[in-house]
Amino acid sequence: MGGNQEQRFQTVRQGQALPNYKPGGWVLFQRAGFTDYWLGRTFDGYFMLGPDHPIHGNEADRFIIYYEAEQYRRSIPVEYDPQMPLF
Description:
Elements: E1 9-12, E2 25-30, E3 37-43, E4 46-49, H1 57-75
Parallel strand pairs: 1-2
Antiparallel strand pairs: 2-3, 3-4
């Protein structure tokens, strides 16, 4: 990774606090005594988990890319076609 490349997430190690709160930002929180992390997003008043299980740090980028691609895909309006096949 290049030195100027923006990271997709912040990492909070065991015993540390989140340094910069960004609403909608992705954060990895290290589990106590483990090498895996909880991944989620920070919002005003709550933390939304990403995957439903702890992941390794190298899986975080892949999850975020897939998640954001799916959100983008769902945001594209579907054009109505009266001749659209049902099956």
